[in-house]
């Protein structure tokens, strides 16, 4: 099912307009623009405050800061999918760098390499990148702040290394590769490393007076892959749709799922947030959201999607601080998902029927615990307890006649149907655990066997 702008009820559109207006007024932002995506389409967009005369708010460029990192991560996963690198490779295998070379590509993507958070001074976000022409120039006296792989520690220099990795393996500047491989296929024609009219001016708003001053918009140089880009709500809406569905021209669903899986356990104090391989993961208002925030002097930005609701939102503002774009995007998603939830997909019978697999479904027992094996379209299986919580997983068919877990406890584990000499099913083996039709079924190949006196 697809939706157009008119699918949203007038009351929902008014609520979205009001939420945007409140954010701009209370955040004291010169301007805020936003958009909502549902099922791959923009269903609402708007702008408040000072906008270029006659410009469509959806086409006005703002600087998006660290949202750039998500696009850089997509480039790196493309290199992996082409076999040019492995995520476990030390980045120093591909890039000559004085620091951070032993960190793996995956650790850099997930900010677990232990590198310093910021580049060496002066304040790099307000300093022309031409002052740091080499990778060595971005590292300070203590480039390594934590042991690699032990904890999440956000690192802008880490993404500078990833930008250098892309340039080395592609033999072209990072921005050119990004445009050709990611931006152009997704239709993000108003996204790039430099602003083009119409674009917003970045402002710092005084915290206690209704006055402002312009912020510098410098070229980040070697740190471009960490935060250089300018974009629009129209383009980032296309990126939000990509985060929901993937695009085989850029990155498929399997690699997209890797991006969105937290690299390490979140900090205990921040249990509601995590970080994947280039995207942030957060729980807001009972929803799992995936996306990224961004900021540079004069600008703040957010793009988030709720995969369960098939809804995404983008918000951009031209103020250094005080504008809650993350709260705005989460609120826009909540308004649409709560007021106009999508109906579930209609049930349809499977397109293929395999009588042997149908016969395999039903109740199986792990020891004395009853579980249900279900068959879905495409020969997909799911297994889980008949009761409440427990170990539940879906399994995709493999060419060798087995199935591989995609989620839950058995993610990556193999489900195998064990047969007797006469071809009948003896048991199901899932990662070495045996499931039988009856609890500890006599005669079945259960490790340790069944008590010869049976149940008593």
Automatic annotation (TrEMBL):
Sample GO molecular function, one term: hydrolase activity
UniProtKB keywords: Hydrolase
Domain DUF7586 span(s) in chain numbering: 353-437
Beta-lactamase-related domain: residues covered: 21-337
Annotated protein name in UniProt: Serine hydrolase
Species of the source: Streptomyces marincola
């Amino acid at each position: 099912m697809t939706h157009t702008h008119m699918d949203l009820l007038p009351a929902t559109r008014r609520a979205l307009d009001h939420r945007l207006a409140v954010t701009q007024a209370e955040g004291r932002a010169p301007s805020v623009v936003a958009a909502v995506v549902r099922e791959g389409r923009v269903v609402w967009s708007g702008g408040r405050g000072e906008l270029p005369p006659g410009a469509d708010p959806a086409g006005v460029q703002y600087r998006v800061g660290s949202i750039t990192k998500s696009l850089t991560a997509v480039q790196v996963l493309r290199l992996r999918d082409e076999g040019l690198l492995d995520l476990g490779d030390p980045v120093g295998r591909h890039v000559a760098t004085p620091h951070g070379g032993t960190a793996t590509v995956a650790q850099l993507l997930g900010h677990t390499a232990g590198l310093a958070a910021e580049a060496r001074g002066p304040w790099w976000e307000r300093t022309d990148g031409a002052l740091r022409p080499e990778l060595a120039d971005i590292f300070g006296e203590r480039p390594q702040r934590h042991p690699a792989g032990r904890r999440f520690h956000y690192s802008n220099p880490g993404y500078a290394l990833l930008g250098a990795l892309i340039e080395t393996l592609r033999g072209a500047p990072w921005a050119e590769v990004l445009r050709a491989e990611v931006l152009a296929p997704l239709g993000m024609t108003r996204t790039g490393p430099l602003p083009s009219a119409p674009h917003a001016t970045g402002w710092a708003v005084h915290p206690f007076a209704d006055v402002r001053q312009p912020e510098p918009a410098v070229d980040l140089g070697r740190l471009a892959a960490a935060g250089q880009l300018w974009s629009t709500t129209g383009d980032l809406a296309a990126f939000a749709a990509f985060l929901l569905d993937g695009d085989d021209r850029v990155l498929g669903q399997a690699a997209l799922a890797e991006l969105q899986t937290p690299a390490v356990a979140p900090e205990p104090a921040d249990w509601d947030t995590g970080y994947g391989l280039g995207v942030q993961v957060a729980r807001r208002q009972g929803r799992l959201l995936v996306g990224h925030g961004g900021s540079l002097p004069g600008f703040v930005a957010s793009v988030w999607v709720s995969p369960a609701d098939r809804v995404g939102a983008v918000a951009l503002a031209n103020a250094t601080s005080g504008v809650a774009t993350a709260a705005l995007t989460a609120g826009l998603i909540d308004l649409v998902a709560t007021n106009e939830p999508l109906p579930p997909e209609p049930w349809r019978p499977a397109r293929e029927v395999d009588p042997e697999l149908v016969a395999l479904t039903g109740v199986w027992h792990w020891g004395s615990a009853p579980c249900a094996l279900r068959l879905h379209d495409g020969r997909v299986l799911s297994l889980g307890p008949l009761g409440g919580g427990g170990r539940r997983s879906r399994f995709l068919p493999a060419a060798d006649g087995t199935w591989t877990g995609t989620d839950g406890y058995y993610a990556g584990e193999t489900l195998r149907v064990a047969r007797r000499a006469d071809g009948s099913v003896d048991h199901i083996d899932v990662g070495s655990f045996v499931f039988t039709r009856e609890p500890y079924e006599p005669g079945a190949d259960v490790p340790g066997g069944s008590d010869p006196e049976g149940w008593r």
